[in-house]
Amino acid sequence: MDFATLIQILDSMLRLSAPLIFACLAGLFSERAGIFDIGLEGKMLASAFFSAAVAASTGSVWAGMACGVFASMVLAALHGAASITFRGNQLISGVAINFFASGMTALIGQNWFKLGGRTPSLSGDSRFLPLEWPLAETIGAIPLVGSVYSELLSGHTLLVYVALLAAPVSWWVLFRTRFGLRLRAVGENPEAVDTGGLSVAGLRYRATLICGLLCGLGGAYLSTGFAAGFIRDMTAGKGFIALAALIFAKWRPGYALFACLLFGLLEAIAIRFQSIEISGVGTVPLQLMQALPYILTVIILAGFVGRAIPPRAGGEPYIKER
Amino acid sequence: MTEINGRAQPDAAAPAIELCGISKSFGPVHANRDISMSVQRGTIHGIVGENGAGKSTLMSILYGFYRADAGEIRINGKPTQIPDSQAAIAAGIGMVHQHFKLVPNFTVLENVVLGAEEGQLLRPSLKLARSLLARLADEYELHVDPDAVVEELSVGHQQRVEILKALYRQAEILILDEPTGVLTPSEADHLFRILKSLRDEGKTIILITHKLREIMAVTESVSVMRQGEMAATVKTSQTDPETLAELMVGRKVLLRVEKKAIEAGKRILEVHNLSVTDSRGINTLKNVSFEVREGEILGIAGVAGNGQTELLEVLGGITEAEGNIRVGGKEISLVGAGSDARSRRRSGLAHVPEDRQRLGLIMDFLAWENMSFGYHNDRDCNHNRVFMDNRAMRSATAKRMRKFDIRPDTPDTQARNFSGGNQQKIVLAREIDRNPRVLVVGQPTRGVDIGAIEFIHQSILDLRQAGAAVLLVSVELDEILSLSDRVAVMFDGTIIGERQTAATDERELGLLMAGVADGGRS
């Protein structure tokens, strides 16, 4: 494998990781506040659809993204209402959102565009275009180091950079601000928050809305940045992989970034090397390569990566004691 | 500190707290009925009452957890609305709950500032809190490492964090709900020293407890609640424990049970080198050995969490262990088949678990069903190998309910609809009434009202009288001292010392509970 290939794989890793990072941080905010959310997938899907659909209709990717994020936040608020106000089962609510998003996007898509659930292909201003960093051509001419700048760092869409920045920003918010302290507290012991004179429900709603926002960005990126349009069920389990990454990362933003990059890397490798020859064994089939991220997910969820302690109040609706 | 957070300067003559005609109902239940009370500034005021007497509800109203249906709260003579905890904090009220409201994986500092931060960023708040805590620590003997993670602190220290939280919020009125339940006697003494120095600084303290001894020791005045009403408020110096107990229950209560002297017979329960390693690889029980004879009660004292739970679970057949246990000379298995609860009962060992709602009862099941669990394979519960004899179980339950004075005495009532004391009596009746050779009983009177305590203690003594061996595990030292013939103290998974009850006292046992191996004798 030469250096150029390595750069290509890493470049593709960044693009593939971005939606995972958004979803993983979304889950992080929600679960740190004590709301389990397996509806990341559904929210991303809804946002992916509305981003592409509105972008296709208006020709503005920004309008598309705004609608996508809004759709995702509506679903987040719904999940919040079910699990915070009505103290429902958070898993069931999450599953419902996934089914709802999967069905409704296909249905509305077919109704609007008659393309079998797809949206029309996006081009020009209706999608996020790669941002060329200044002097990319000039610096790219430098051997080796140059391609790191021009190929790997430069040339991604805006949302990839936002995703990469979202991790440190999340860390700062969670561990350096008052809001972060309260949000973490409400996921560990809501009673402490309640007796401290703070609103448990208020904090949790804010966390779920942040979760919706981040999922929305992830979805918008999928259909308007990564791909050029919406395809049915295009999230393809990314929301679930993000959940696995979240457990792998032990609910910490820094680890989450690396976990998502690892999943992205595996995917990039699977795409780049459709078949690998291993001497003595033969060819590793394509299917196995493509399954790698999912296999890793299973291994992580089976608990092979050490003990991960979730936020203590996670999944439990808060009921004031009598 | 005269002007605090814009609070009005206290009117020197007005009481710190005045409650006028507070009422609160939950559905048809009157938790508080026309409660009036006043507490002078700079005093420690006790509130006693049985479980369900309405103490907690009253304090929850004062702390803004509930809103009273009627009545008025006056703080420093000024009528005050307390719709939520925020308002209570603003009014200068701080509360130390029975179950601490701390975030276990936060540091002490983070817990203290939570909800009372200065500004949007954390760093300045933590810095400010650090200097304030250092000052409070010196002023009131409230020393805790500000950077320690709360879950790694002892219970006594966690409680100090709760007090610090309240003081950090500049509380002038401090409410403590059952603060000594989890403390060793020496920790409790320390707490009372802290409370007295807080009082001397002019703070007002409300102490909710069911331990009359504590009321007598630290309070200036005491209110007694009964069935949601205020039964009396008296000066502590003008009353005594017997009077208070009578006011609480509404009738005369024997605080000390009559214990007849009987000669202990042969060894029935022999425990040798019992060890338990939990899933994390920690030894929760280390080489525990003891024996109990016929007609003898061995009390196991100790601060909660020193291996008592594990000991009970091994004896009850819930946890596997290493070592030997003999019941009536016959070895019983501690691992694998035959180490389950049913085999234990067959060998004559009955177990009243310490957590009756988790291990003793199924809360949604009826009394007669609960009364049969563990014995549901016995002949008297079944017609034949297929059909159970529900009618027999019902009538047996009805009989036991009368014998153990369980109210209501209807076998078709769900377990959750009984009070704590009556739930406990259901479990006790189930285990005791079949005349076991060994009774292992954990925390028999936890969350049980005074009237029922008396009855439960008498039942245990009756069983002893009948020649059974009783192992009594309790964190209530008073209970251990009044019932047992011998006392063993558990500390850190071992039995640190054993004494004849008649030859020891609270002070010595307290030292043992704190891990001083010779009980301070040398």
In a nutshell, what does this entry contain?
The complex is a heterodimer of chains A (322) and B (522). Chain A has 322 residues and is mainly alpha-helical.
Explain this structure to me?
The complex is a heterodimer of chains A (322) and B (522). Chain A is 69% helix and 2% strand. Chain A is mainly α and 322 residues long. Chain A has one domain: ABC transporter involved in vitamin B12 uptake, BtuC. Chain B is α/β, with parallel strands linked by helices and 522 residues long. Among the domains of chain B are: 100-171, no CATH class; 267-359 and 436-513, Rossmann fold. Chain B contains 17 helices and 20 strands. The longest helix of chain B has 19 residues, at 122-140. Chain B starts with 16 loop residues before the first strand and ends in a 9-residue tail after the last helix. Chains A and B meet through helix 8 and helix 9 of A and helix 2, helix 3 and helix 4 of B.
Please supply descriptive tags for the structure shown above.
heterodimer, A: 322 residues, mainly alpha, ABC transporter involved in vitamin B12 uptake, BtuC, two-stranded antiparallel ribbon, 2 strands, B: 522 residues, alpha/beta, Rossmann fold, 6-stranded mixed sheet, 24% strand, globular, disordered N terminus
User: Globular, elongated, flat, extended or rod-shaped: what is the shape of chain A?
Assistant: globular
Distance between the termini of chain B: 47 Å
Largest sheet, spatial ordering of strands of chain B:
6-7-8-3-9-10
Q: What's the helical proportion of residues of chain A? A: 55-70%
Please tally the helical runs of chain A, counting DSSP H or I stretches of 4 or more residues. 13
Order of helices and strands of chain A: HHHHHHHHHHHHEEH
Q: What does the oligomeric state look like here? A: heterodimer
* Fourth CATH level, the homologous superfamily of the domain at 267-359 and 436-513 in chain B: P-loop containing nucleotide triphosphate hydrolases
- How far apart are the termini of chain A? 66 Å
Largest sheet, strands/sense/barrel of chain B: 6 strands, mixed
